[in-house]
Structures are given as C-alpha cells and as structure tokens.
Amino acid sequence: MRTMLAALEPILIASPIQRSGTTLIQRLLSSAMDTLIYGETCANDLNMLIGLYVQKSSMYGRNDGWRSDQMQQVLAGAVNDWIPDLMPDPVEYVARFEDQVAGFFHYFAEFARRHGREQWGAKLPGWNTFQLEQLLQIMPRSRVVYIVRDLEPCVRSAKQMELCRNLADVQQFSQFWLMNLQEARRRLRSDRVFWIDYKVLVAEPESVLSELEEFTGCQKIDRTVMDHRIGDYHQDTGPVPALSQEESVIIRNIQSQIKAGG
Description:
Layout: H1 3-6, E1 11-15, H2 22-31, E2 35-38, H3 40-60, H4 65-75, H5 90-114, E3 119-125, H6 129-138, E4 143-148, H7 151-160, H8 167-187, E5 193-197, H9 198-203, H10 205-216, H11 245-261
Parallel strand pairs: 1-3, 1-4, 2-3, 4-5
C-alpha cells in the first residue's frame, strides 16, 4: 500500500509565517546542481492532493460493502432504490486515486531528474503542521527543513511588503506566527526535521549550510547566495519600516508567550 508515494524523498521547506526565509533556503538548495526546490503553488498542490487522498481513504477504505452491493444491484438491473452516490468498487476507487496522486508527485521528481537534479522538494511559509505530518507519514523518506525567524523582523518585512497594513493585520500576523511555531515545536520532533534559526544562518552561514548539506544530501551549496538579498520579484531591498509603539507591544506580548512556553 502507498508504495509509489513511499518511494518519494522530497525536501519540504517550511516556516511559521511569511517573510521568514523559506525563499532563501529554496535558493540555497537550488544552487546545488543536484537539487531543485519548487515554489508555493506546487507545495499547495501537494497539500491539496494529499488531503484529498487521505479523505478518500478514510471515507471509502473501510466498511463499504454496502457500496459494492449497491453497484451489483444496479448492474443487475435493480435501479428502484436511492442511489445518488453510486460509485465503482471503493477499494479500486481509492487505489486509482492514489495512483493519480503518486503520478503527479512523481512528475516533480522526474522533471528535476530530467534536468540533472536528483533531489527535489517544495517550499511554503506557514505550512500547516498537520499537513506536514501527513506528508512525513505517507512519504517516510521525506524530510522537513523548518526555518524560524524572530517575530519583529518578520513583521517589519511584512509591513514593507504591505502584508500588514494596520494594527489588526499585525495582531493577526503575530498570532499566526505564534500558533504555527508552537504547533511545529510540539509535533515536529522527528529526526527527519532540520531546524534553522534565521539569525544563526546569517551570523554563521558556513556552519549552518554544512549541516544543511549533510541533512539533505545536497552537494556544494553556493555560499555566495547569502550575499544577495532578494525580497520579492522586484528584488526590493529598500528601507524596512519601523514599528509603532502599539506594534512593539503586540510583539513583546507574543514573544513573552513563546518564552513562557519554552
């Protein structure tokens, strides 16, 4: 069961929220000529398909003898019954669905391999921890690189990108950062998860990148990528907005909750 999916070995790059450095990690890993990390559209598609597959498996994988009986009755000509959800054999249905999902996943691997990249993955800031757990479970060879940036620079960067336009936006953004980080710390305790502190990556890049190479198996990450600051499609590196007093209070309150939780 799940043999096609189980054979896959993607590298999943995640963070608690946007503006945390997932694109930097994507660029670093993709600079290794044996690795290709896809972007957020692909990551969202992976989530959607895995979610559908898990849902179908749960709905139709057990105690569905009545569905098979209903189909046999219809095939025998007995159609005077309530049959709005008539469907083929449930076991075959789920198996075919899995084949389609696995085929789509394998396409990512095949495309990367076609271009000389033996390893592949995808990146998504704010990746839901439950979804990451599903992917790790269904693909036992997959790995997660989880990068955490302090809340204040995340908020300031989000303001620069106009993701946070007012105090309510800052409050919501900060709460998502807190919730996702707490969940990730609580649930992603596997040795298949590599944690990166953004500050340490910037301060000690060689140490972190050497460990990242060892964890992922990527060969020869280009260290000069760290010299190029790219914030968006326009490569905007303009001044980062300061925080208001009210925004600073929100951030201090959130950070105190993180410290209290350990």
